Amino acid sequence: MRELLGRFSRDRAALLGLCIIGPLVLAAIFAQILAPYPNDVIDFHLERRLLPPSADALLGTDRMGSDILSRLLFGARTTLMLAGVTVGLALLIGVPVGLVAGYYDNRMSEALMRIAEIFLAVPQIVLAIAIAQTLGPSIKNAILALTLTYWPFWARLVYAETRSMRNEVFVESAVALGASPWRVIVLHILPAIASPIIVRTSIGMGATILTAATLGFLGLGPPPTAPEWGRMIAESREHLPEAWWYALAPGVAIFLTVLGFNLVGDGLRDILDPRLRRGP
């Protein structure tokens, strides 16, 4: 662990990503404290409508007169919660499916991977939009739509890694000593393939945030009153280019968040994959 932390600390890109994600997570957690107007993010203040950035509103105000910085902080909470729950559920579905399908050679494993390939055959964003449109706009439905489109990516990754690991000497030794298939899968194969899962999870967070923002932009995410970055950009279209600050703040937030998770994911890949490790 000390060696891995040392490698991570020398990876400037990964540290940059961590410096982006860390403050963002803290801002989302303490949004109620950090937001200049925490109680006005869903109220109308027509007298303050579309004001440019100033000392009273550092990032300006939106079409409802709400402080954009406050909505941005609460939107970070919504976005990170949505992405975190989605990735967690996708892991809970995709990892067991990939482990079972990769370890066994039977009809069940073939059926599981064929189902995953059916989902993968359709562009992920198109499938997510179709599911969200069918279910209706809400946070729960957005999470469900994203989960149903993301679990096959983890299933396919874990399937390939498990296939490559099941003929390794340590796995054959465990089988020869009488270990049950589930013991081999959980205690031997899963720890051995944890590195690519961790890397895929970090990069997947960035992709999920971008897709969630797309759903919000199309009106298929959280309800209109909930602060959400994609919906904020959609609302700003009617007021461009005059109210340029309206779209700029959430757009930059999405860009930096996705960039941060991708940089951390690339850094973890370089650290955890021995084939890509740089010098000590």
TrEMBL record:
UniProt signal peptide: none
ABC transmembrane type-1 domain residues: 76-265
Record-level GO cellular component terms: plasma membrane
Domain of life, source organism: Bacteria
Single GO biological process annotation from the record: protein transport
Membrane-spanning segments: 12-35, 80-104, 116-136, 142-159, 203-223, 243-265
Protein name per its UniProtKB record: Peptide/nickel transport system permease protein
